[in-house]
Amino acid sequence: MSLRIEVLSGLGGKAPAAILVEAKGKRLLLDAGGALHPGQSNEWAAGLDVDAVLITHDHIDHIGGVTALPGELPLYCTSPVAAALPPGRDWRPLPERGECRIAGIPVTTGQAGHSLGGVWLHLGVAGGVFYSGDACLESLLLPFDEPPPARVALLDASYGIYDVPQAQCREAIARRLSEPRVLPVPASGRALEMALWLDTLAPRLGITWDLDSVCRKGLEALLELPRSLRRVGGDAAIRQLLDAPRPTSPSLWLVADRDDDPHDWPAHRLLHTGYLTPRRQRQRVAGEVDWQRWNVHLRLSHLRALVRQLGARQVVPLFTTDVREVNELLMTPSGLMMATEGSDAAG
Ligand SMILES: [Zn+2]
């Protein structure tokens, strides 16, 4: 069976995700990413002709390019993700965990452990094509489902060769909470698990904390999802957090990221925990903001485990400048054949 994969965007750096898969005479677009910051190139949609688009999750670099696609193009996503589509955009349901056919191609989905309603995609063509979207094996709240075997693996390598366990990240963040802080975070992703973690941590540190209404709505939405779509044991803690009285002037704020600047928070200092735009990188260098990662992507050990579990013969590390290094480190003694920096995986 002929298979052609073209990474339209997302290879060689942190960039909008857009991957074209052509099989059985049909063309599927996996994700339709938008620019992560002003000035980032985002031309992948020009002249594109596809049969359907599948969106893995609601972060801007995976969904923000939908506006550049024809409104009548069939679009598939889960219902929590559909809430982030442009108003009035038609969409068709993608299972949060299950199987369907799109343009005649068998598609399996599973929870990606990265964001509310976010999934990975597996296409049942040519021995299997797995696309992780953004994925994480370390979420306190969101499960990662084991995918079926796949000959080709397109993987979230946003962290390159980084391999620090989440427990160490949490300790490093905790050490920075002795002064008044604001943590701007993606509301559908790490906000939810950070909220639960802070609710346990804050009393131990003797600090007060609160979350904004957007983060609060994310937790409420999480409780509305079928129970099997979150890790066991968290529901009571989420309800307790939502019901508890909140302090009037907390020393710590967890807020949905609205491009917050230091001058927006004169009494607090910003602590970023994820991707830094060029502007924020400059602010960090100038000592105006701080940064300490909270893992929401696959780190090297987990990429390696996933490749082994998939039985992948070709791996394409996405969203990283360290394509060659990641590929070399993913090599196994069995002589796994790795893709190089080329964007086509033909076979
Ligand atoms: Zn994401």
Automatic annotation (TrEMBL):
<feature type="domain" description="Metallo-beta-lactamase">
    <location>
        <begin position="15"/>
        <end position="188"/>
    </location>
</feature>
<protein>
    <submittedName>
        <fullName>MBL fold metallo-hydrolase</fullName>
    </submittedName>
</protein>
<dbReference type="InterPro" id="IPR050698">
    <property type="entry name" value="MBL"/>
</dbReference>
<dbReference type="Pfam" id="PF12706">
    <property type="entry name" value="Lactamase_B_2"/>
</dbReference>
<dbReference type="InterPro" id="IPR036866">
    <property type="entry name" value="RibonucZ/Hydroxyglut_hydro"/>
</dbReference>
<dbReference type="InterPro" id="IPR001279">
    <property type="entry name" value="Metallo-B-lactamas"/>
</dbReference>
